[in-house]
Each structure stands twice: as structure tokens, then as C-alpha cells.
Amino acid sequence: MVSYYEGHSEYPPAAMLPKLAKLLNVTTDELLGLKPIKKTQQPDTRLQRRFQQIEKLPNKEKRQLVQVIDTYLKAAQISESPISN
């Protein structure tokens, strides 16, 4: 995983897409932009604003934030319903 972030890739590994979709309560097609997000889903606007701000950061800072988020999500999976890796 470390080599992935150090490789300056802008996209998550394909195996991570189903997990991200589940966490964000969208389908993988919606996550990839292949289908529009259903209007019944109410996005968290605070979270969206933060993601927009993160997108403006330099790559190094974005990678660091992703590592922090990954660490938090991994810890949360242990105490809640696990998402298989």
C-alpha cells in the first residue's frame, strides 16, 4: 500500500472500489461516474466540501491524508462490521 501512495497514482486500486462504494453508500458504477448518483441519496455536504478542499492540496499532502483516512477506516472495521480486504 505504501508503494501505491509513493507511486503518485491518482486512482485507488480496483479492489478498493467496492469498499469505497459501500462506505459512501453508492454503487461502483456511480462511484466511477458511469451512472448518475441516485437523487434519493442525500450526500453529506460538509464531507463533500472537505473533499473538494483536499483535491486542491499538493500530491504529498493528499497522500498523507489518504493514509490517515485508511488507518482510521481500518481501525473502525475492527470494532464494527468488518469489510473484507
What do you see in this structure?
The protein contains 5 helices and no strands. The protein has one domain (2-79). The mean pLDDT is 77. By secondary structure, it is mostly helical. The radius of gyration is 14 Å and the shape is globular. Helices cover 58% and strands 0% of the residues.
Query: Helical region count?
Result: 5
Number of domains: 1
Helix content: 55-70%
Distance between the termini: 12 Å
How are helices and strands ordered from N to C? HHHHH
What is the residue-averaged pLDDT?
Answer: 77
Sum up the overall morphology in one term: globular
Counted beta strands: 0
Main sheet properties: none
Which percent range describes the beta-strand content? under 5%
Q: pLDDT below 50 for ≥5 consecutive residues: which ranges? A: none
SS-based class: mainly alpha
Provide the gyration radius in Å. 14 Å
Oligomeric state, counting identical vs distinct chains = single chain
